[in-house]
Amino acid sequence: MILIFSLTLVSAQNKLEVNTVQEKYSGGENITLRISLYDSSNNLVNDNVLVSINSSDNKRNFELSLPSNKISEVDLGKNAPFGYWKVNARYLDKNTGEIAESNAIFFVEANDLAQLELNGDNLTVKNIGNTVYTKTLQIVIGDTIGTKTIEDLAVGESITFRLIAPDGDYNIKITDGTTTISREKVALTGEVIGVLDERLSNPSPGITGSIGNKSLFNNTFVYIFIIAVFVAGILLAVENNYRKKLGKM
């Protein structure tokens, strides 16, 4: 009789789990990771686990070695891009050479935030949030109120404007609804109350047509005046021509 024995080898596979304590995080907030590592018998294994964290646009990537079976906080840095991020945890068992992996996803909320600075008559707006900045500034110069719309200011980018007003000292307040600055007795010069784009020699076309009761750049009035002069010239020419015809009769 021949006896045949069958032997089944069971691989001692580790089990790895990674998850975030929260599903959503605000911009600039540290994320919290819980990493759990078990052996094939579901006993906890304490070791370091390689963790990679990537933003959805792949502009931010982190490679970390974090301890298992502990809660770890990770700083994504300022202006961490908003949107979904992916976490990949990977553990290599040095004894068996086997690899265990686990993934998790979390969301960083948009932080539409700007820094407002007023140096003399220069207003600088810098995007210190984590998404493109598009907002309308409320600008108070003395007793007059106006607006300036900032569009598509990239993260980290800044833009500078110059405040103008008839020569004098003015109290100024500027807000975008989230950030507010105010200054007293700011010396301004100019012929009208308004805001000039320092990148251009002419007033920015994005400036609101009026602040309070005073015109910023009253192009409409200029156009009407030019048309009126042109029409008056035509009428005068017609009248002169008509008079000449009457003189010949």
Folded structure, characterized:
The protein is mainly β and 249 residues long. The chain has two domains: 15-108, Sandwich (Immunoglobulin-like), CATH 2.60.40.1930; 114-221, Immunoglobulin-like (Sandwich), CATH 2.60.40. Helix content is 12%, strand content 48%. The chain is built from one helix and 18 strands. It has one helix at 219-248, and strands at residues 15-20, 24-25, 31-38, 48-55, 61-67, 70-74, 83-92, 99-108, 114-119, 122-127, 133-141, 144-153, 158-164, 168-175, 180-188, 194-197, 210-211, 214-215. The strands form five sheets. A five-stranded mixed sheet has the order 2-8-7-4-5, with no helix packed on it. A four-stranded antiparallel sheet has the order 9-10-13-16, with no helix packed on it. A four-stranded antiparallel sheet has the order 12-11-14-15, with no helix packed on it. The model is unreliable at 1-11 and 200-223 (pLDDT under 50).
Strand content: over 45%
CATH class of the largest domain: Mainly Beta
Shape: elongated
Indicate the radius of gyration in whole angstroms: 34 Å
Give the fraction of residues assigned to helices: 10-25%
Kindly report the CATH topology of the largest domain: Immunoglobulin-like
Order of helical and strand elements: EEEEEEEEEEEEEEEEEEH
Number of domains: 2
Contiguous uncertain segments of 5+ residues? 1-11, 200-223
Enumerate how many helices there are, as a single number.
1
**CA-CA gap between termini:** 147 Å
